[in-house]
Design a protein that fits this description.
Blueprint: E1 11-14, H1 22-28, E2 33-37, H2 40-44, H3 53-58, E3 61-65, H4 74-87, E4 91-96, H5 98-110, H6 119-122, E5 124-125, E6 135-139, E7 151-155, E8 161-165, E9 173-176, H7 186-204, H8 212-234, H9 239-258, H10 263-275, H11 279-310, H12 319-336, H13 353-360, H14 364-367, H15 376-386
Parallel strand pairs: 1-9, 2-3, 2-4, 4-6, 5-8, 6-9
Antiparallel strand pairs: 7-8
Helix pairs in contact: 4-5, 7-8, 7-9, 7-11, 8-9, 8-11, 10-11, 10-13, 11-12, 11-15, 13-15
The structure holds nicotinamide-adenine-dinucleotide and fe (ii) ion.
Amino acid sequence: MQAFSFASTAQILCEAGSSARLAELCRERGASRVLIVSDPGITRFGLLDGALPGFARAGVTVEVFDQVIADPPEAIVLNAVERARLLEAELVIGFGGGSSMDVAKLVALLAHPNCAQTLKDIYGVGNARGQRLPLLQVPTTAGTGSEVTPIAIVTTGETSKLGVVSPLLLPDLAVLDADLTLGLPPAVTAATGIDAMVHAIEAYTSKLKKNPLSDLLAREALRLLAANLHEAVHNGSNREARQAMLLGALLAGQAFANAPVAAVHALAYPLGGHFHIPHGLSNALVLPHVLRFNAPAAAPLYAELAPLLLGERFKGGSIEQCCAELINELAALNERCGLPSRLRDAGVPQDMLPRMASDAMLQQRLLVNNPREVSEADALAIYQAAY
Ligand SMILES: NC(=O)c1ccc[n+]([C@@H]2O[C@H](COP(=O)([O-])OP(=O)(O)OC[C@H]3O[C@@H](n4cnc5c(N)ncnc54)[C@H](O)[C@@H]3O)[C@@H](O)[C@H]2O)c1
Ligand SMILES: [Fe+2]
């Protein structure tokens, strides 16, 4: 067996309604001043209303920083860090989608009283040092898996993003509360759910760090996500389906945190960078086309995943037939979920495809994990197929 290492968030609480107990969970960790990092949509929808009253009862001072925006830029991270320092926060809670959770991770690190590093010092893999504040994550989308990954993604320029990857960013506790996701709009449910599916698929075919634990998690993640996506999108108030989606996204996060994602994500990033297409939709738009490109190298693994994606509708047959079943099913997902299927329908101008292909090549951190090598010409051909 190939050697591997595996790390994840230490504790997971998977229970509808559990975010009402956040204050207790902070108290148990000895914290008396807590910063919640969130976005304006979360406060507007009243998603914190169930959690906040408990803080006063528990005698824990709490402040909410709700200025995170999607694909958070550096300035937002620095503002949140400043807020945590002023509060002398002893614990940080990320409460929201991947954007809020990613900012919370960086705040926990950079607002620690002994921190001597700046945000610019820690971009890249393994550059963060020292300690961080205790960190709890409460996802309100079932997608990024950020609650169990050692990664935070920051927008650094007009069109560029950088990642901070460090074991220090792995949170202490993930709280999965389906009640928070009952009102997630269908389009966001679909895009974030497909993002989680991509995490599972890319972890399962990850070239360098594929490992038996990630495989196990990726398979169960894909089964759960596929079985519940349709219900979560079309009948959002189904609590069971919502809890299953949260767990599926978490398991996919555990898988790809240890067997990293690859070309689907590499080709998705320029879509977010240039056109502000949400992360999940960017992935959904290129997914079937990257998998068709990868098939010559990954067909046996895709064939293994096909029955998990299709469930009772799986027909089976040769490796090529099973692989085609998987890809065709994924290609039909966008339309079934009410998302655009083609780049042209998502507002991407055709003359930008060469620029996007050249930008995708910058994502070597991800491309090295792809089962098949991707050249710039290949990336352009994939974008053209997706157009
Ligand atoms: N750290 C990681 O491992 C990792 C992995 C993948 C993506 N990411 C990053 O995560 C970000 C994307 O995260 P995301 O897709 O979760 O979206 P998001 O956090 O950007 O949120 C998108 C929108 O959904 C709204 N929303 C969230 N929860 C809601 C709810 N329950 N009800 C109603 N509205 C709700 C928010 O207010 C926001 O407007 C990107 O910055 C991406 O780069 C990080
Ligand atoms: Fe993703």
